[in-house]
Amino acid sequence: MSSPDQLGQVKRKMGRRRKRVAIGDGVPNPRKEEKTPAPPRKEKKKKTDIGKMFINISIGLCIFSLIWFFYALYMRSSLARRVVTLHPSQRVLDANSSSPAVSPERYWGTYRPQVYFGMKTRSPRSVVTGLMWMRQFAEMDGNLRHTCEQGDHLLGYGWLMHDGVSFGVQEVHDRDFTLTTEFVKRMGGDHGGDWTWRITAKQHEAEMKVKVQICLCF
């Protein structure tokens, strides 16, 4: 026989079980609703910063300029070494080949390039001679003529006769007059002989508009 106390404990246990079953069979506990992830948004294209672009371009140009500058210095120095440095092969001409004793007939000559008229010797330390002229008191075109320049606007100039040794005749056509330059050499002595110039001016019109000054320089 069970005591009333034991029956009471059994009823209590049964009541607890029923409550648990009722709770378990009921509506499940509401869970937190999970938010669905939003679709990824397209990133807007960043606007180009004009200031940064200008700075980058400036830096690039500076670097390019420095590279070009150092390259030009290198090429200049290398070309200078090539010009100054003598070739190790045997010389074609002797060291004294330009002296008057070796070739006296060719010692003096018109060995001055880029001038209208001039003479010198074959020696590297020669006396240099030349011809100059200019228009005096001219409002326009008062340049001194000596070196061959396109800005002189001459009508023409050039040698008519020249044997390369003893004589030559040249004409220089300016706007208002023509200059005729002549030279002749005579052999003799120890310094390549003697030579003589003659400069003749002939005006194109009866009256010259401006005065012309002719100089022989040494």
UniProtKB/TrEMBL annotation:
Keyword rRNA processing: no
Assigned protein family: Belongs to the glycosyl hydrolase 63 family.
InterPro entries: Glyco_hydro_63N, Glyco_hydro_63N_sf, Glycoside_hydrolase_63
Region listing for Disordered, in residue ranges: 1-47
EC number(s) per entry: 3.2.1.106
Any GO molecular function: Glc3Man9GlcNAc2 oligosaccharide glucosidase activity
Domain Glycosyl hydrolase family 63 N-terminal as annotated: residue spans: 107-215
Coarse class of the protein's main subcellular location: endoplasmic reticulum
Keyword line: Endoplasmic reticulum, Glycosidase, Hydrolase, Membrane, Transmembrane, Transmembrane helix
Record's catalysed reaction(s): N(4)-(alpha-D-Glc-(1->2)-alpha-D-Glc-(1->3)-alpha-D-Glc-(1->3)-alpha-D-Man-(1->2)-alpha-D-Man-(1->2)-alpha-D-Man-(1->3)-[alpha-D-Man-(1->2)-alpha-D-Man-(1->3)-[alpha-D-Man-(1->2)-alpha-D-Man-(1->6)]-alpha-D-Man-(1->6)]-beta-D-Man-(1->4)-beta-D-GlcNAc-(1->4)-beta-D-GlcNAc)-L-asparaginyl-[protein] + H2O = N(4)-(alpha-D-Glc-(1->3)-alpha-D-Glc-(1->3)-alpha-D-Man-(1->2)-alpha-D-Man-(1->2)-alpha-D-Man-(1->3)-[alpha-D-Man-(1->2)-alpha-D-Man-(1->3)-[alpha-D-Man-(1->2)-alpha-D-Man-(1->6)]-alpha-D-Man-(1->6)]-beta-D-Man-(1->4)-beta-D-GlcNAc-(1->4)-beta-D-GlcNAc)-L-asparaginyl-[protein] + beta-D-glucose
Organism annotation: Sinocyclocheilus rhinocerous
UniProt-recorded name of the protein: Mannosyl-oligosaccharide glucosidase
Transmembrane regions listed in the UniProt entry: 53-74
Membrane topology designation: Single-pass type II membrane protein
Ranges annotated as biased composition (Basic residues): 10-21
Role according to the record: Cleaves the distal alpha 1,2-linked glucose residue from the Glc(3)Man(9)GlcNAc(2) oligosaccharide precursor.
Subcellular location: Endoplasmic reticulum membrane
Family matches, as Pfam families: Glyco_hydro_63N (PF16923)
Domain of life: Eukaryota
A single Gene Ontology CC term: endoplasmic reticulum membrane
GO biological process terms, semicolon-separated: oligosaccharide metabolic process; protein N-linked glycosylation
